[in-house]
Amino acid sequence: MTDKRLLTIGEVLVEIVATTKGDGFRAAQPLIGPFPSGAPAIFVDQAARIGAEAAIISRVGADDFGKVNLDRLAADGVDISGIAVADDGAPTGSAFVRYRGDGSRAFVFNIAHSACGQLELTREAEAVIERCSHIHVMGTALSAPGLSHLIKAAIVRIKGQGGTLSFDPNLRPEILDTPGLRSALGEILAQTDVFLPSGDEIFLFTEAQDEAGAVKDLLARGIPEIVLKRGAKGASHFCAAGRTDVAPLAVEEIDPTGAGDCFGGAFVGMWLMGHPVEEALAYANAAGAHAVTRVGPMEGTATRAELDQFMKDRTR
Ligand code: ATP
Ligand code: MG
């Protein structure tokens, strides 16, 4: 059997990080970056690094921030033929991030008005969709109207030709009030083969009051596999055959941004390459833990050999 090819669609950005903790950006301060970023970009980079065939559809500006991303993704083995370079002067998206003392984050975003805010179905993007047999949907990408439309069209095509779908809501319940977002997410969930919620996101689509009830409800509604991310507490996989847990690896958390995306990219990548659940879960858990040890959202992606070593170093 040939490997299945994975596609994701969504934002490609640079992230610029304040080197000190504090409340936002109201004074001049030291910064480090640009780092390649964007949840779908981090996901697809990790999937490619673990060995999966992986592509992304996005749009960047004709500028250095775009080049930083294109170069990194290509070097890590991602098919970037579906990333358009804007010819209308739109810049690459960006996010400035500063951590507060309590671990929360202050952001200044330029995404909606950046190159990836005006994503269109180009001929190259269409060719990529044609080649792919799996689509990964990031909930965050669905809040942009143009993007949402494109993602839905790609789902129809890929599921229509017998492909599969994974879905990471990547949304905290507070921001679900965007008009139309909850119903768009519900439509995606109904077609999901692997659902990857994080923490309380397991309750986004169920009335159940506890985790076991939520899992039971979602499985009964026909979602074959659920992978629950538990941050520093590890992760669990649920399906009709039962439950599989993985204990967290002991790491020093330097920068938690991107852990969930690396976890997802590793899990879905391994799953598509046909590895058993226990193995996919172990690598995903290691990829998430590895990600938090590095500054910069995409800096923590890792190859399978690197993750083997990382696990070995922590289980002796
Ligand atoms: P994001 O902020 O990127 O959206 P998330 O909330 O989706 O992250 P997390 O649950 O924070 O995802 O992290 C994903 C996985 O990474 C966890 O389930 C776990 O396997 C691993 N992980 C994350 N943080 C840690 C940590 N501090 N120690 C060990 N493992 C971790
Ligand atoms: Mg997440």
UniProtKB/TrEMBL annotation:
- Tell me if Transmembrane is a UniProt keyword of this record: no
Source domain of life: Bacteria
Which residues belong to any copy of the Carbohydrate kinase PfkB domain? Answer: 4-300
Q: Which residues form the signal peptide?
A: none
Q: Extract the PROSITE patterns matched here.
A: PFKB_KINASES_2
Recorded hits in CDD domains, A to Z, give: KdgK
> What keywords would UniProt list here?
ATP-binding, Kinase, Nucleotide-binding, Transferase
UniProt xrefs under Gene3D superfamilies: 3.40.1190.20
Q: Please verify whether the record's keywords include Protein transport.
A: no
- Molecular functions (GO terms): ATP binding; kinase activity
Q: Which PANTHER family match?
A: HEXOKINASE FAMILY MEMBER, PSEUDOURIDINE KINASE-RELATED
**UniProt similarity note:** Belongs to the carbohydrate kinase PfkB family.
Q: What is this protein called?
A: Sugar/nucleoside kinase (Ribokinase family)
Q: What organism does the UniProt record list as the source?
A: Breoghania corrubedonensis
